[in-house]
């Protein structure tokens, strides 16, 4: 029997002795992060928010096996939030859709969540009305059974079966009434409840995971009372994906006691907050670099590469990689790189075929 098949299944219970200390630690870390960010100044706050939201969009899609272009995501978020960045690029429709959903959830967190708003999010996720090669029903509740499975076709393992399609309108009314009202529970805990509740209903034909995480971000923004996001729950869920699915499946096959789910959720949230220190460090490093080089002339290609290097560029920078990223010839790439070496920005590593370049560490 699945949890949603039990009577009054959303009357969740939990062990306060286990959850209260964890919740206190989350609230302490939350206050510390908001305090640190307020001391950084507006521009650095903008940079951190941009990096966090970009990470959230990219990683939330990656959980579902979809690889989005981080540069397109970053450019789309920056444009919508009015943040000026170097090397902005146009974004594809699927990127714009995911960005639109997350920003609506986090920038308008204090507005009610209703059917039409969720339909809009769903339509934004699937602008062509298709999921991959398959046509799906968009901007409406699903009208068929829903199972979460894994394994090869014909030998699938069923991990979970959602409520039948005829129950969705009633289940969603109960969820939305609860989500939009005030309860005598901590607002961070409410994010954990909302995540479990919505993903268990699984009201759409596809996209339920991404919408669940947008709802989670929306409630966490309510808990922070801030549009600014400084930690990414989606990035941490991706890092702990196997454990996430395991505890979720165990909870959905259990009874009303969801202590194990709440414990995992709060622990995951704490670990996502711990990554904020690294994000702030990278933001400060990037800000210091551009401040130091404010009188140095860079072309648009060089700005793009430097931005990537300052954002923890993956692997070695080579002439061929520079050419591929900036879409120019290797001769032009080499001239750009040599110019940056001459300005003391890059330094060469190795020689011959193993030649690569890295940022000069101050």
- Alpha carbon gap, first and last residue: 61 Å
Give the percentage of residues in beta strands: 5-15%
Looking at how many chains there are and whether they match, the oligomeric state comes to single chain
- Fourth-level CATH superfamily of the largest domain: Fido-like domain
Number of distinct helices:
14
- Biggest sheet features: 2 strands, antiparallel
- SS elements, strand count: 6
Name of the top-level CATH class of the largest domain: Mainly Alpha
Overall pLDDT metric: 93
Number of domains: 2
CATH topology of the largest domain: Fic-like fold
- List segments where confidence is low: pLDDT < 50 over at least 5 consecutive residues: none
Helical percentage: 55-70%
The CATH architecture category of the largest domain equals Orthogonal Bundle
Given the C-alpha coordinates, what overall shape results? Answer: globular
Which structural class matches the secondary elements? mainly alpha
How is the largest sheet built, in terms of strand order?
A: 1-2
How do the SSEs run, as a string of H and E?
Answer: HHHHHEEEEHHHHHHHHHEE
> Cα-atom Rg, whole angstroms?
23 Å
What does this structure look like?
The chain is mainly alpha-helical. It has two domains: 3-286, Fido-like domain (Fic-like fold, Orthogonal Bundle); 296-359, Winged helix-like DNA-binding domain superfamily/Winged helix DNA-binding domain (Arc Repressor Mutant, subunit A), CATH 1.10.10.10. The chain is built from 14 helices and six strands. It has a two-stranded antiparallel ribbon. β1 and β2 (134-135) form a beta hairpin. α1 packs parallel to α11 (259-292) and α3 (70-81) crosses α4 (93-107). The chain is globular and about 70 Å long. The N and C termini lie far apart (61 Å). The model has no long low-confidence stretch (mean pLDDT 93).
């Amino acid at each position: 029997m699945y949890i949603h098949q039990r009577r009054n299944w959303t009357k969740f219970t939990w062990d306060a002795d286990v959850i209260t200390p964890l919740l206190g630690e989350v609230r302490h870390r939350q206050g510390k992060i908001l305090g640190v960010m307020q001391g950084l100044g507006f521009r650095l706050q903008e940079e951190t928010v941009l990096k966090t939201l970009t990470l959230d969009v990219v990683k939330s899609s990656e959980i579902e096996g979809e690889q989005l272009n981080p540069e397109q995501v970053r450019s789309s978020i920056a444009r919508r939030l009015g943040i000026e960045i170097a090397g902005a690029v146009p974004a594809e429709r699927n990127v714009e859709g995911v960005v639109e959903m997350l920003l609506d959830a986090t920038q308008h967190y204090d507005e009610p969540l209703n059917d039409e708003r969720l339909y809009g999010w769903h339509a934004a996720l699937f602008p062509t009305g298709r999921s991959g090669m398959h046509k799906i029903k968009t901007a409406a509740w699903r009208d068929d059974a829903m199972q979460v499975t894994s394994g090869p076709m014909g030998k699938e393992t069923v991990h979970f079966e959602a409520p039948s399609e005829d129950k969705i309108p009633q289940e969603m009314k109960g969820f939305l009434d609860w989500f939009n009202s005030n309860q005598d529970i901590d607002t961070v805990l409410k994010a954990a409840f909302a995540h479990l509740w919505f993903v268990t209903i699984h009201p759409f034909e596809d996209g339920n995971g991404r919408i669940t995480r947008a709802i989670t971000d929306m409630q966490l923004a309510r808990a922070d009372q801030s549009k600014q996001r400084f930690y990414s729950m989606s990035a941490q869920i991706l890092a702990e994906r196997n454990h996430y699915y395991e505890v979720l499946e165990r909870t959905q096959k259990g009874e009303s006691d969801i202590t194990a789910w709440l414990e995992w959720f709060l622990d995951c949230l704490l670990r996502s907050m711990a990554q904020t220190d690294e994000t702030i460090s990278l933001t400060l490093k990037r800000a210091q670099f551009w401040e130091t080089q404010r009188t140095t002339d860079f072309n648009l290609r060089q700005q793009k590469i430097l931005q990537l290097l300052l954002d923890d560029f993956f692997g070695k920078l080579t002439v061929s990689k520079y050419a591929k990223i900036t879409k120019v010839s290797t001769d032009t790439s080499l001239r750009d790189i040599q110019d940056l070496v001459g300005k003391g920005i890059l330094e060469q590593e190795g020689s011959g075929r193993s030649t690569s370049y890295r940022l000069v560490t101050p």
